Amino acid sequence: MDTPLSKSSVPQPVRNPLDWLQVSVMDGYIVREILMPFLFGVGAFSSIGISVGALFELIRRVTESGLSLGLAMQIFVLKLPEFIVLAFPMSTLLATMMAYSRLSADSELIALRGCGVSVRRMIAPAIIFSIAVTGVTFAFNELITPAANYQADITLDRALNSERPPFRERNILYREFEDIDGDGDGDDDEQRMRRLFYAESFDGERMYEVTVLDYSQTGLSQIVSADSAIFNVDEKTWDFYDGTLYAVSPDGSFGQTITFDTQEIQLPSTPFDIANRTKGDEEMNIAEASRYLDEVIMKTGDEKEIRTFKIRIQQKYSLPFVCVVFGLVGASLGVRPQRTGKATSFGISVIIIFSYYLIAFISNAMGEVGIFSPVISAWLPIFLFLGVGVLLLQQTSN
After folding, report:
1. Which residues on neighbouring strands pair with residue 81, listed in sequence order?
2. Contact present, 293 and 307 (Cβ < 8 Å)
3. pLDDT confidence band for 2 (50 / 70 / 90)
4. Is 236 left (phi over 0), alpha (psi -120 to 50) or beta?
5. Residue 250 DSSP label
6. How far is CA 132 from CA 92, 193, 248, 381, in A?
7. What number is the average pLDDT over the span 369-378?
8. What DSSP assignment string belongs to 264-312?
9. pLDDT by residue (tens digit) across 219-248?
10. CA 261, 264, 268: angle at the middle one, nearest 5?
11. How many helices (H) and strands (E) does the chain have?
């Protein structure tokens, strides 16, 4: 008589620890359904964006300024990444909604539910797809778009014989602020201007027609006017040439006046750093923008400019995550048991996109005036729509 095998003696199938990485038939099928509308959306939204934002302006440059067609095409290609990045979130929303709406309309989602597949499991491929698009968007935004934008502007300037120098040529203005305790409670609750620096022109090394107003004492205490000035990088000082120093009395009258050929004055390097800046924030990646914030913008003490620059940096972080949020919202809407055509899906996508960017615009404005912090200003629209997506998913699951 055979002895029955105990459970521990029955050979168990060997499980591959990487099984969870394998894509099921259902996942692959859903991703393929998402992919084609996504590519269509990238093409459509990019075309609309670049037509409004760049193409019409290039056509005007060709007809009015004599820009060659070859250079116009080159600039057009360099501008493409900026609009492709903006198209990624919108395309994710459109693709997920159209894909799941089609599956719902053909009763394929009902069949999956009949097989015991939950709604959350059904939209898992859309979420993973959206996360992948988020990574691609972040890479585009960091590695390609800033450099392409900068190169496009340089190419256009050179083509129009207005080659952009690697520094700011005119009107270098720097205002230095300091915090003060206005009500004597020990907290810095007010700002006042400590110093104003103005140079009429800059040749990359020397500034000309320089004026410095010093408010470090009570009121205006000193005025320095010079034909030129150079920042001494080694000594971290400014050398002023052929100028006059006026001491201003508390009653506003001029006191001692000193005329000099050369005068060394201790001032921060910030005016020199500002003059050497040629890139806009849209032409910097996160590392460049953060470095510029620390080395230049923070030293100005201008709270509004500091706040605005911090918001721009936070928006560079937050923009890619719109893809995940839109993927969740689109899939949650599409998976609902209803028959929605492609035109209806496109219309709903446009309404959601418009609503999102309207809220983002308002949040940005409230951040710039100081009602929201830079972090809240950049991330609030994302968390609002993330909440909407979770709520829609919860309703559909129930």
Report:
1. none
2. no
3. very low
4. left
5. T
6. 11, 48, 63, 21
7. 93
8. EE---SHHHHHHT----GGG--HHHHHHHIIIIIHHH--HHHHHHHHHH
9. 888 899 999 999 888 888 899 999 999 888
10. 135
11. 13, 6
What residues contact 251, with CB distance under 8 A and at least 6 apart? none
Q: pLDDT tens across 258-312, in order?
A: 899 998 888 888 888 777 766 778 888 898 888 888 877 777 667 888 899 899 9
Least confident of 74-88, 283-297, 310-324, 332-346: 332-346
Identify whether the C-beta of residue 345 lies closer than 8 Å to the C-beta of residue 93.
Answer: no
Tell me the CB-side half-sphere exposure of residue 296, using CA atoms within 13 A.
18
Distance CA 194, CA 268 (A): 12
Burial of 17 (0-12, 13-18, 19+ CB in 10 A): exposed
What mean pLDDT is predicted for residues 381-392? 94
Answer whether residue 129 shows pLDDT above 60: yes
Dist CA 111 CA 222 (whole Å): 82
Report how far residue 140's alpha carbon sits from residue 253's, in angstroms, rounded to the nearest whole number.
58
For 329, the 3-state DSSP assignment is helix
Q: Which residue type sits at 334?
A: G
How many alpha carbons fall within 13 Å on the CB side of residue 382?
A: 18
Alpha-carbon span 245 to 211, nearest angstrom: 10
Place of tokens 């979770």: 390
Residue 95 reports pLDDT greater than 90: yes
Per DSSP (E only), the strands in the chain are 170-180, 190-202, 206-214, 222-232, 237-248, 254-265
Hey, what amino acid is at 333?
L
pLDDT digits (tens, 9 = 90+) for 266-278: 888 888 877 776 6
- Residue recorded with tokens 């053909």: 106
> Tokens 């994710």, residue?
92
Report which DSSP code applies to 21. G
